[in-house]
Amino acid sequence: QVQPVESGGGTVQAGGSLRLSCTASGRTFTGYSMGWFRQAPGKERDFVAAINWSGSNTYYADSVKGRFTISRDNAKNTAYLLMNSLKPEDTAVYYCATHRMQYYYRPTYYPPADFAPWGQGTQVTVSS
Question: What is the DSSP string of 41-69?
Answer without folding.
Answer: TTS--EEEEEE-TTSS-EEE-TTTTTTEE
